[in-house]
Amino acid sequence: MESVRLPEIQSQTLGNGMRVLAVRDRRLPLVTLVLMVKKGAEADEEGRAGQADLALEMLTLGTEKRTSQQIALDVDSLGAHLAFYSGWDASFVEIEGLSEDLPSLVEIISDLVLHPTFPEPEFEQLKKRRIASLIQDQDESEIVADDQFTELVFEGTPYGHPRRGTVDSLRRLALDDLERFHRRHFVADQCVLMILGDIDFEESFMRTEEFMGPMESGQASSERKAFQVPHRAQRRIRIIHRPDLTQSQIRMGHPGIERTSPDFHRFQVANYILGGGGFSSRLMERVRSQKGYTYGISSSFKARRSPGPFVISTFTPNENTGAVMLEILEVVEAFVREGARQEELEGAKNYYLGSYPFRFETPAKIAREILEVELYGLGLQSLSNYPLRISEVTLADISLTVKQRLFPQGFSVVIVGNGDLFKRQVEAMGDVEIIDFQRLVAHRSEG
């Protein structure tokens, strides 16, 4: 494979305990700063879905010395770009601009995270925008299927709610909830700052000590308790009945794998063979090419601190729903029973080895890769070891991994479509629960 040369990396811990990673990449006169807080939607309090995501946006809507308009003007005047995002295990504030503006960029990101004012008028406007967006999303059957699958698989766990919240959870959220999230988690020992670009290491560390040094040290959070989501012994099927739909959205799967698992690379290769490999995957070959039931089908997984979702996603005309489910189950069961073929294994490994250099072609991609291994404590050497880990995967590894990690008999299944046309087709495949879409929307809207 093409070798991957990581840019030079240096690290330093500030006096308050914040870890700083400085990465020199002089291909362009730009610098990217990413502040990672090691808490995301997983830390949303019970009944407060969307808490982390809204808290992140509120940081950009007012500080002690800047209004939201002034923040936008200051960022624009530098020709910079500001972004924020809350994932499941971490939240991010990112700013990118010219490397000559490093002091100003560090000052802005410091002002946002150290001195937010959470202005009430901005909060009410933000809630209205988010609720309007969620109401609009309810018309998208793909989004409804994804949210219902999350709820069905992870019910009762910190992963069991929509990351962006629901209409009723957002209506219940108060400004205090967002301030509390910020106060608890934006502490130095829970944050990592990455500075990546055409930089001088000494100046970068000096500027971060100057502007981020005042962040409170805090204490390493002990709030999180590791959890495992048990696999179901029996298949469970939830139908969201929408008579107006001509196509059904189908989601099938269960909890997958944690990011730190020693099986991660083997599961990655196995998933590519099953449904992650586009037109070369088994699911695509069988359900699309041979049977013609759909234009697209895939399997995917999200590896988090605790096992995230493994899901097979597709869509089909309502009348084909039962047949598609049967085909999917047969493909997965055959994979578990027989394992992979040599040519499939080589194809999957070649894909990951050949595409790996492209994961480092831009500063944003480099930052993403480095912060991921930092978040999960994998060590920077895991980036250079990745090709070796992939090349070491064998047919025996795939066979053992799929037997230990795939449980089609315990799949959780969500179907959004006209249940009148396929309910009888799927009843023999598991316990069926039917939820009327209009009642679901009304319940979520009323709270």
What this model shows, in words?
The longest helix has 18 residues, at 120-137. The model has no long low-confidence stretch (mean pLDDT 93). This protein has helices at residues 51-58, 68-77, 102-114, 120-137, 141-154, 167-172, 175-185, 201-212, 264-276, 282-290, 321-338, 342-355, 363-375, 381-391, 395-405, 423-426, 437-446, and strands at residues 8-13, 19-24, 30-37, 81-86, 91-98, 191-197, 236-241, 247-255, 297-303, 307-317, 412-417, 431-436. It is globular, with a radius of gyration of 23 Å. Strand 4 (81-86) and strand 5 form a beta hairpin. With 447 residues, the chain is of the alpha+beta class. 44% of the residues lie in helices and 19% in strands. Helix 3 packs parallel to helix 8 (201-212), helix 9 crosses helix 15 and helix 10 packs antiparallel against helix 11. It starts with 7 loop residues before the first strand and ends with a helix. The chain is built from 17 helices and 12 strands. It has a 6-stranded mixed sheet with strand order 1-2-6-3-5-4, with helices on both faces. Strands 9-10-8-11-7-12 form a 6-stranded mixed sheet, with helices on both faces.
